[in-house]
Amino acid sequence: MIKRLAIAALITTLGSQLSACNATQQPAPHPKGYETYINPGDTFKHTQLTNIDGQPVMLTQGKKLVILFATWCSDSQRTLNELKASALLTDPTLQVIAIGREEDADTLKAFRASFGIDFQLVADPNRAIYQHYANKGIPRLIMLDEHNRVVNTLIGEQPGVIDQVRWQ
């Protein structure tokens, strides 16, 4: 009996060590369980969206800042206020698109009017867009280069996230 247990323990130990040789190291999980499904160098999956006025939004040449947000989220509101106060919106080479997660066009139109938004807003009522880029957590900022490749991604839960938006 003891011999069988010793053999079983030896086999288990060897098996776990051998399988560990083939395992790839995974990044440490975010403490809040956030996962980002797109990484620097990846191509952004959406090249055309429809804004809340029913007009097509083409991701054109030049830099792009895509913000995944919700109107009810205080972190999203703070990030959008930081964006409005920044020099980013005066950059003629930058296209800004904000995608309202679980938001419909009417809610976003009211938000645009009350919040003074003058960049493109896209409704994503069923997370059809959001689910391609993350599992949870807003606001999400995705910086794209002129070829719609991801330069960086940020989660904007802390003040000052707009100061971290860079394309170099």
UniProtKB/TrEMBL annotation:
Protein name per the record: TlpA family protein disulfide reductase
Origin superkingdom: Bacteria
Keywords, comma-separated and alphabetical: Signal
Domain Redoxin span(s) in chain numbering: 40-159
Signal is among the record's keywords: yes
Tagged with keyword Cell membrane: no
Pfam families in alphabetical order: Redoxin
